[in-house]
């Protein structure tokens, strides 16, 4: 994927249809944005369900993970990011922490998160997939469309960009 859709342009042309996630994100990876159909996951300091989800075909999809905003441990490291990339996921939005940030920065992929933590997460499988998430004054639902770049994150009920 080399097609980055500029969020500023989308707001200018589709302001009534997009919602802005009112959070500041850190961006990791060589790609500076992503867009696609949303898949949601809620978990807290445990990444087993996240890994299992990224093992599936991600073609055209982005994974939005509500990790409760925890910065005590990382939900994504280099191996999980590489798994997402290998299985065609367009990008990851993590409301929590990552680790192995230098290794992820070297990947042709994009992960957005609140920050980093060196400690790995639990592996019990705690969490739920395809549930409504709420953070940054936005609700995220599986099937919506997400746009992310260096300016921020937008959510829409449908794809609102012009295919190029």
From TrEMBL:
Give this protein's Gene Ontology molecular function annotations.
Answer: 4-hydroxy-4-methyl-2-oxoglutarate aldolase activity; metal ion binding; oxaloacetate decarboxylase activity; ribonuclease inhibitor activity
**CDD domains, alphabetically?**
RraA_family
Record keywords: Lyase, Magnesium, Metal-binding
Fetch the InterPro entries from UniProt: RraA (IPR010203), RraA/RraA-like (IPR005493), RraA/RraA-like_sf (IPR036704)
Q: Where does substrate bind?
A: 77-80, 99
Establish whether keyword Magnesium is in the entry: yes
Q: Where does Mg(2+) bind?
A: 100
One GO biological-process annotation of the entry reads: regulation of RNA metabolic process
Catalyses: 4-hydroxy-4-methyl-2-oxoglutarate = 2 pyruvate; oxaloacetate + H(+) = pyruvate + CO2
EC number(s) per UniProt? 4.1.1.112, 4.1.3.17
Name the cofactor(s) required for activity, per the record.
a divalent metal cation; Mg(2+)
Regarding protein family, the annotation reads:
Belongs to the class II aldolase/RraA-like family.
What does the subunit comment say?
Answer: Homotrimer.
Q: PANTHER family annotated for this entry?
A: 4-HYDROXY-4-METHYL-2-OXOGLUTARATE ALDOLASE 3-RELATED
Function of the molecule: Catalyzes the aldol cleavage of 4-hydroxy-4-methyl-2-oxoglutarate (HMG) into 2 molecules of pyruvate. Also contains a secondary oxaloacetate (OAA) decarboxylase activity due to the common pyruvate enolate transition state formed following C-C bond cleavage in the retro-aldol and decarboxylation reactions.
What's the protein here called?
A: 4-hydroxy-4-methyl-2-oxoglutarate aldolase
- What organism is the protein native to? Aminobacter aganoensis
């Amino acid at each position: 994927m080399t097609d980055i859709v500029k969020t500023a342009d989308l707001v200018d042309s589709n302001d009534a249809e997009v919602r802005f996630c009112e959070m500041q994100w850190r961006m990791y990876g060589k790609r500076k944005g992503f867009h696609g159909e949303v898949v949601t996951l809620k978990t807290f300091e445990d990444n087993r369900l996240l890994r299992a989800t990224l093992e599936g075909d991600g073609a055209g999809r982005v994974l939005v993970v509500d990790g409760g905003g925890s910065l005590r441990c990382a939900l994504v490291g280099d191996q999980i990011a590489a798994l997402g990339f290998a299985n065609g996921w367009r990008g990851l939005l993590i409301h929590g922490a990552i680790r192995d940030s230098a290794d992820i920065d070297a990947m042709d992929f994009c992960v957005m998160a609140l920050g980093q933590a060196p400690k790995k997460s639990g592996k019990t499988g705690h969490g739920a997939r395809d549930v409504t998430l709420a953070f940054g004054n936005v609700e995220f639902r599986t099937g919506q469309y997400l746009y992310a770049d260096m300016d921020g994150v937008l959510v829409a009920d449908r794809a609102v960009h012009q295919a190029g």
